[in-house]
Fold:
Amino acid sequence: MSETEDHSDDIALAGEYVLHLLNAADRRAVEARLTTDPVLRRLVRDFETQFAPMAEDIPEVVPPAALKARIEARLFDKPRKERRSIWRWILGGTLAIGVLAGALVMAPRLMDMGAPAPAMTATVAAEDGSLVVAARFIRETGMLDIERQAGGALPGRVLELWLIADGAEAPVSLGVLPPDGTAQITVPAALAGQLSGGLLAISDEPPGGSPTGAPTGAVLAAGPVIDA
Amino acid sequence: MSGIDDIEEMIVQVSLGNRAAFSSLYDATSAKLFGVCLRVLKDRAEAEETLQDVFLRVWQKASLYRANGYSPMTWLITLARNAAIDRLRARKAPAVDIDEVPDLRDAGPTPEAAAIASSERARLDGCLEELEADRSDAVRRAYLDAESYKALAARYDVPLNTVRTWLRRSLLKLRECLTR
Structure:
């Protein structure tokens, strides 16, 4: 297999990124590119995968027993103080404003809506928070209310929403998200029954949506469907 | 140790908020991931804090796992290694002189460990062997010990730009060999 000449810069760059050899500014630049460049993303994933066997040399060391209890307490016990520190951790880091953050954002919105309460909700979020879409399924109407809270489609591209049902092999398209911030998507009855326990994902697709019935572009965001 | 499919299933279950699966995943993988953090940080207290962050991230990011195309252990090791190296780089000054750290790798794998080495491992080793010895050594030190260009330049007593050129060329050769 031959790689083209100007491709070789990106190969070396992806390797340097995986080995953490870049300075902070260059590392951030690569991270920014990774959100939009599937070729670079694949190079990084390949190096991570190919280098991971080196970790076989690293001896296992059992961490102190108290550590597990501490982690579980931080995640699952919710006294006020602890909760605040988890929020600081989530918001302070460069991590996904993921599922937990989504719940926070949505709570007040649910209260000021006169509409029927949603049976299920999901926050479909990119790892870096660059795309956040809240989804609420209203059983009475069979509609999925969509609200884009951050980010959007790339120029000349669209966002397509997918359901990966629990135990399903392949995602099923729920439709292309319109360019406006909010949308209502009718969920066919057969799919509505599969929402619970499933995963919603958003992929980058050409105008009109995936031509193949399966995601063709990068998966930009994902989030589990939570029973309300 | 659980099989790889079990770990994958545990991650999927964790993404759905299954606490029992999270507990099982921790039991199955925390010793490996703690080893990775310790290897990079060479400091037990810092490695413990990092491991804690890693598992908080696992809980929160598990829903992204199915979309990212990584195998389960690669994903977990990458999370742990990235968290440990981020922490290492954030230190104001190195806690230890790298030359004072005993080199675990010099001892080489035991015959038992070598015998059970995976086929992916054999392929990687084969490709590393095609590089000059100090260059494959530099790749290993960068991956396993998070040695920077600066540290590697000092270790091999060559200018920083030279070591950078070495590494970049080595990465191209490795990519070529590994995708052959």
User: Anything to note?
Assistant: Chain A has three domains: 7-57, 66-93, 99-227.
